[in-house]
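Q: Can I see a sequence and its folded structure?
A: Here is a first one.
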Amino acid sequence: MEYFRVFKHLVHKNISSIFGSKSHQTLSTVDIDGIAEFLAQTNEVIVMTGAGISTNANIPDFRSESFGLYNRLQKYNLPHPTAVFTLDYFKENPKPFYELAHEMYPVLQNARPTVAHYFIKLLDLKEKLLKHYTQNIDCLEELAGLDSSKTVQAHGHIKTGTCLGCRKKYDFEFLKDKVIKNEIPKCIECSETVKPDVVLFGENLSKDFWNFPSDFSKCKLLIIMGTSLVVQPFAGLAGQVNQNCPRALINRDPVGDSGMLGSFWTNLFHLNPEFGASSNSKRDVFLKGDCDQICLQLAEKLGWKEELHLLMNQNNNKIDEKNSKI
């Protein structure tokens, strides 16, 4: 049912783009000042985020060259470096995945939300945030105080796990205990492998993700942070706002090629966001640089900088206090 509803939305959007009115400029200036001014007057903001908002929390982007995924797992003779993130390979050999998890657990345990995470929380406090869609599985937005109902975790999360056999659910503490010991979690009922509830290549995305037509049809401003919009279907969300909706990309690099379904289908159903194309030049703003620094600039222009720092300090103190009792 979700897929039919999404397909209907995509067809309707395509027809509207062909026969509807052309886009017009809604920003006073097509730069950071124009985005800040528009944000000050606008509610119903959607934020899309990727790995780039968590790198300042020392959580690496696994797909980046600097992480060196292949070198780390070369001893397993992977068919290709990212095989460790495919469901088929996980079922065949979960050890490489859990070796990475063992290496990353101390990083995740000590991670603090970044300025970008707190900026999203501040948008919510200002009653401007419609929804936060993220590719990240680290749940740092929740650690920053954002209610889970406000976030769609497109690629799942590490909070729970599921047995690949009997489908019994396990909590984070069960997974953590095994990962710390560098063990592969096994189901206590059927002895099958337990997989964290992250979405591996070859798995369906969550039902929450496929509700995107309801959110994106209401969106008045789209802010994209820490992603180059390459991985589908997440990348295609940027093309689902209406033609007059301003879009700001905060990232170190410009957008990539998201046409993995072929140019015909990606263009037909707006799965290629076409960010920065001449047809979108009146509404697209590329803010090149570090996500945290640009969020601070936006906060300053909006007169929110003091509030943002106060929010960060208060919440980080709570996190430190809680961890000191563990």
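Q: Show me another, different protein.
A: A second, unrelated one:
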Amino acid sequence: AMASAVLTTGIGVAQQRGLYEAESAPEMRKAVCPRDGPLAPPRGVTCPDSGGVRVGAVDTPTTTSQAIATATAGDSLHALDEVAELISARAFGIASVKTGELVAGSAVDETLNIASISKVLTFLTVFEYMKRESSGVATLLKKTVRVSTAAASVKGGTHAALRSGDNMLIHDLLYAMMLPSGNDAATALAEVFGKRMLAAESRAVVSADGAGVSVGRFVKEMNRVARRHGLDSIKVYNPHGMRSTKNNKANVRDVIRLMELAVQNPVFVEVYGTKGYSCRVKNLAVVRIVTWRNTNDMLWGAADGITCEGGKTGWIPNVHGQRVWGSLATIVSRKVAGAVDAQPERYIIVVLGCKSRKRRFLDSRVLARWAYGCVADAAKRPDGDAVLEANEAGEG
């Protein structure tokens, strides 16, 4: 079984509380992110390395999934006693991307609402299906699909402002789902690929505007993908995470595993770290330019050399006895001081059940600083590390 490493910050609770209060100050809460202008579709990037390392005579598991899978219930997870009282999240976890080690966490096995973090699984399900089709991923990403009336009407939470009859590339729909956390885009993708799954099974193909069956088929596939990768705590009932008769749930361990799987996909890495994205959408004879901004405010600003590579936000009201339930799954990195060519240290940080949308970013920053041992500079708040106003307007 894997033993957890102990990280120390070198400062006490009072100092760290001072840091947190500084980050929560009213003047900082008013800070606004700069908004990028229209961006061209990004070029492909190389998937980050997640190879294992050798420690003594024992090989460390090569992926986060393998490492966490080897952990037993008896392993101790350090609950960050010195900073735990600063964290509003109901559950959290920190894992090393390089070694796969679950470094620290609290309530990591409690099954909780994951809201729009569900869209990471939606993304993976789309890609796993595209890889099985003979036309191939590259061809399907360039395929134009029509947004149905049913998908365009999903406006009860965060959305990408899609309209019935919009004709879009599947590539662009992925951005529409991930950046503004578009529940309408997630539904559109579920319809498109649910229909393809039904057709491949020689079952009745539903019409574009009668898409309930196709979405249900896609959600069934999402749960199959989760089981296939050993993500046993994940159970989803819709492709977006918005409130329905039942809520999409998972535990922190499996969200970490999910993120580790996702960043092995170069297109996911391309999308999840993009601040803003613009594309052309045609509807009948009208062509419009749409621009989406990433809801992950961790992407703006850096502190102590810590950079957010990307992630997925989520929030939903009135679950688990909380008025607001904010969540975030993100990956942070920091260059090793004095090592020009060294690969950065990278951590997956997951917080579930933060008490506001802003607190999911605050909690993640505190945990990132703890992971890198940077919280000793409690009296000074680095420039650019502003607490940013989330632009999410509803559940998702």
